[in-house]
């Protein structure tokens, strides 16, 4: 784990750099991906090896759904095991990455469309650490989480994300973590190793085409995309992190997909790299 005073000196005032950091949307799926070696976790590890080393990471996770917007601002965020019924090895895993209070203040200051509270109680939930512990296993990069305000509509989340684009020029990796298609009530455990219902595959394909075409308006108005979209998004928290990633896209960014697989019938792991 990195020395906190050293990290503070490096990140107290992150300089603008020529390199534009990519933006990610990660389909994180089961918490078990945090300790398993599989196609999904292998791709996260490969990302960590191939993208520029970030000065810090800001995660927008499906699992921090709040009344208002907040950003973690503690020196060392706790590892939150926000699930039940899994093996003890998963509960034993700790991801002791530092936070960055100065970056939290800067992040809050960049957002003018809403008030952003500085949070000292949350930490890193499994939408963050299950992915990051594969990407950056040394836990030496400062990690922040930005919460999702459940009172705001999809367009407001998309537009708020765009206010953070300056951080991409400062070496900050911004990552949405959720799932495009996420309906746990309809999951078929006989399909857990792969496979999706027709409606799940169809709407996931529609989402992908809109993303690759840069056509974000229908994605913000997903309720108008028909019954399949409503089955895919019975509640919005796993979908909205995608809009944070798309809101940070710039005209020059190339877009690619990875982990494009359905599991359990009603969940897709499809992930997006922007830039």
UniProtKB/TrEMBL annotation:
Belongs to the DODA-type extradiol aromatic ring-opening dioxygenase family. Residues 51-248 form the Extradiol ring-cleavage dioxygenase class III enzyme subunit B domain. Pfam families: LigB. InterPro entries: Extradiol_dOase_DODA (IPR014436), Xdiol_dOase_suB (IPR004183). It comes from Pedobacter antarcticus 4BY. One of its GO terms (molecular function) is zinc ion binding. Keywords: Dioxygenase, Metal-binding, Oxidoreductase, Zinc. Its cofactor is Zn(2+). SUPFAM superfamilies: LigB-like. The lineage of its organism: Bacteria, Pseudomonadati, Bacteroidota, Sphingobacteriia, Sphingobacteriales. NCBIfam families: PRK10628.1. This is Dioxygenase.
């Amino acid at each position: 784990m990195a020395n906190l005073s050293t990290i503070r000196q490096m990140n107290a005032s992150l300089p603008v750099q020529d390199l534009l950091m990519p933006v990610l949307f990660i389909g994180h799926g089961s918490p078990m991906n945090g300790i398993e070696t599989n196609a999904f976790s292998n791709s996260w590890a490969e990302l960590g090896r191939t993208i520029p080393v970030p000065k810090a990471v800001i995660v927008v996770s499906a699992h921090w759904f709040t009344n208002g917007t907040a950003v973690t601002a503690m020196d060392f965020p706790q590892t939150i095991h926000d699930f039940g019924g899994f093996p003890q090895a998963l509960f034993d895993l700790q991801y002791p990455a530092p936070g960055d209070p100065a970056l939290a203040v800067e992040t809050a200051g960049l957002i003018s469309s809403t008030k952003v509270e500085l949070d000292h109680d949350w930490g890193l939930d499994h939408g963050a650490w299950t992915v990051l512990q594969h990407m950056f296993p040394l836990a030496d990069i400062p990690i922040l989480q930005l919460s999702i305000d459940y009172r705001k509509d999809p367009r407001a989340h998309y537009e708020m994300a765009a206010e953070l684009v300056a951080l991409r020029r400062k070496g900050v990796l911004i990552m949405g973590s959720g799932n495009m298609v996420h309906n746990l009530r309809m999951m078929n455990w006989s399909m857990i190793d792969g496979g999706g219902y027709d409606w799940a595959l169809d709407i996931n394909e529609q989402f992908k085409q809109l993303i690759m075409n840069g056509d974000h308006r229908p994605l913000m108005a997903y309720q108008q995309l028909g019954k399949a979209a409503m089955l895919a998004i019975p509640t919005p928290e796993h979908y909205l992190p995608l809009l944070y990633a798309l809101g940070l896209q710039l005209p020059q960014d190339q877009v690619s997909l990875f982990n494009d697989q359905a599991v359990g019938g009603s969940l897709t792991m499809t992930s997006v790299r922007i830039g």
